[in-house]
Amino acid sequence: MYGIALDLGTSGFRAQLIDLETKKVVRTAMTMRHPLPGGNVIDHLDFALEVGEDIANSIILDAVSKIIATFGVDPTCIRKLVVCGNPIQLSLFQNSEIRDLAFAGKNMQRRLGVENVDRSAKVFPASDLFRGVLNLPNCEITVPPAIAHEIGADALAMMIETDFLNRKEVSIVTDYGTNAEMAIKTGDRIITGSAAAGPAIEGQGISCGMIASPGAISDVNLEKKRIEKDIEKDCWRLTVLDEKMEGRPGALIDPVTGETVERGEIEAVGITGTGVIAVIALAMETGLMEQPPKLPDGRLILGNGIEITDADIAEAGKAIGAIRAAQLTLLLEAGVPFEELENVYMSGASGTYVDCRKARKIGSCPDFSKKAVQFGNTSIALARELLLDESRLGEVIALARTIKADHLMMATSETFKNIYTCELSYWTEGMSLKLYKKFFKMYKYPPLPGPVENAVMEKRASKDIEETGNVPVEIVEDVGITIEVPVEGCIQCSRCNEECPENALVTIEKNGSFFASCRTQDCLGTSCRRCVRACPIKAIDFKNIAIQNTSGLQKGSITGGVY
Ligand code: SF4
Ligand code: SF4
């Protein structure tokens, strides 16, 4: 008998097959992308609202089925599936209402006749949802409770799985990811928020980027190499994730010339978000980058064809800036002086693999907190706990009811807007820190304190998923579908596919008509649309999507207990 713990993340899914008798993890699998188009939850919402939630739900269930297929067990032996994620991912998975999450503001919701949805814990037969997709006759699905309709199970997981809820001092917890969930606790008051950081924080949207997975550079460190009797050279030692997701010494390289000075134990194939943060911190520390985003000759080379460019620094900076702006906004809105921030808790793959000192150096983690603690993937940890201990669900439901949290919408916060504008200018336009601080003063925000030099930094997890089983982590590559957009009058100029940053799109001809054919998992969605802008005859309109390859997928509806 098996159970599956599933984390539906904004940049990809992670799942673990667990033997319910031995309680051991048998296998772990992950996708490299989210199956829906887009680099953030808003793109996923837009896609679902545009093409219909049934289709979005079908694509997600198809991806989950492919993950389950890689486990190689008879689906009738799967008894439990516990799924965690943010409210948007969990709603899309269950094919339930999402419009209350799409339209901010009570007035707008009233105009559209949209009610807030109750996102209490649910337990229901898997056959209700996976009907026609995967035969799971003996499986029950458990969805943990949200704290409020827009504060999801993933936020609950990051609070429960860290020390956050027990702290009396001012503490911030952040689940570092594409949609960075975060919360501040001051006394008994909790305010939650989230920053749509974008996929760069996890390595996507970076030219040689990849999600934290085997072969990804997760860190870089300075190392001296003696090249002649009295001459030492500054080189960078790569840390590369192996098949068990542990960091191992990679090559020693000269980042300016790209020369491999010494081979490593493991070859890198790309760089993940924490690796990019390390590159930025090290480039600033060693003087290779005086002011973002300008690198020497516009790039640094990490060997094996892996480069970080000015554009990558700007892209990563936008994500770092969004997280930093949201954390500062939470502090300001809670009325807490910056100096009173005691604890910072970091979770998620990006919160685990990052070198905390470097994260503090570049601002993705406040450098004025007195303590920083790194945890792993708290969503999958909670899903695993609920899978292995049935009584835990009752406890978690009771706990969720006791948490009185307010949610701060960053999208409508003037404070967030002001600080994020400063961050964007710093990371992408070369605005100096001096000017940044001037703007802060102009907005009448208190000055940012200097870094706490002797801060306590504690790492409570060495991997984002502590136990992955005895076989290498399985990567599920092909999780999306193909969508086709009719492009009437297409002159076959190829500008759309040349402009596409992800090579997601080609134009094809069928029975004398032209279509733009696009892989959902590769497309960056509504936040991109470069293909649309590039077309000289304005032929591409993603509202006219025709779906390919979804035959056999059917809409499920959910019955069962709501707690
Ligand atoms: S250019 Fe078009 S197809 Fe390519 S990622 Fe952007 S929106 Fe998607
Ligand atoms: S840019 Fe427009 S006209 Fe050119 S190939 Fe693409 S769809 Fe056709």
Automatic annotation (TrEMBL):
One Pfam family cited in the UniProt record for this chain: Raco_middle
Gene Ontology molecular functions: methyltransferase activity; oxidoreductase activity
Span of domain 4Fe-4S ferredoxin-type: 481-511, 514-545
UniProt KW keywords: Methyltransferase, Transferase
GO biological process terms, semicolon-separated: methylation
PANTHER family from the UniProt entry: IRON-SULFUR CLUSTER PROTEIN, IRON-SULFUR CLUSTER-BINDING PROTEIN-RELATED
Protein name: Methylamine methyltransferase corrinoid protein reductive activase
Lineage summary: Archaea, Methanobacteriati, Methanobacteriota, Stenosarchaea group, Methanomicrobia
